[in-house]
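Hypothesis: this fold can be encoded by more than one sequence.
Test: take the structure tokens below, design a sequence, compare later.
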């Protein structure tokens, strides 16, 4: 009788024991700060990225209720340029009428990869007539000017009064063939 009781007690403990589920949630926050110093006429760009990981442990008690689980959405790819785009108005010469829209992103040039350039090229082509053009400001007086089927590197002038960009000099352009990016300098 003792042997049977021990076996039943062990079986009961195994069937009713707690189980744990562990899950990690990672959050990444990127902050871009652009500062203009009028006395030296320089612009500085500071980019900081903070990553936090939280581990969540869930203890499941034995239950007779039906448990349903849902999967979190698939992680999407990020692009440093496209993720930072902001939409602005294109104004006429008198600056009193909106004649279109453009997008601008402030990104440190050293952080941009060929994959980012390809994604930007495809993004520009996918937008159709939604935006007149896209500006990528490197924060050092240069940047990219993008419109359908064309990306050029330029000297940019940012007017802090009107908060608008003008293209001063074209330095070169990007040739994109599939997954190959070539920069042609003038």
């Amino acid at each position: 009788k003792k042997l049977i009781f021990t076996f039943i007690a062990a079986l009961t403990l195994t069937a009713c024991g707690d189980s744990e589920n562990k899950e990690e949630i990672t959050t990444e926050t990127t902050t871009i700060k652009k500062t203009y110093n009028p006395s030296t006429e320089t612009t500085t760009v500071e980019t900081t990225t903070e990553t936090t990981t939280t581990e969540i442990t869930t203890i499941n008690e034995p239950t007779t209720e039906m448990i349903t689980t849902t999967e979190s959405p698939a992680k999407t790819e990020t692009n440093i340029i496209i993720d930072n785009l902001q939409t602005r108005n294109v104004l006429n010469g008198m600056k009193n009428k909106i004649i279109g829209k453009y997008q601008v992103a402030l990104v440190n040039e050293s952080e941009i990869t060929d994959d980012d350039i390809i994604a930007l090229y495809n993004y520009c082509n996918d937008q159709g007539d939604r935006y007149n053009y896209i500006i990528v400001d490197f924060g050092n007086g240069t940047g990219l000017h993008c419109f359908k089927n064309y990306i050029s590197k330029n000297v940019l002038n940012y007017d802090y009064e009107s908060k608008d960009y003008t293209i001063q000099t074209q330095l070169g352009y990007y040739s994109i063939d599939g997954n190959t990016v070539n920069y042609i300098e003038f």
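The first helix runs from residue 2 to 16. Confidence is low (pLDDT under 50) at residues 1-18, 63-75.
Hypothesis status: open.
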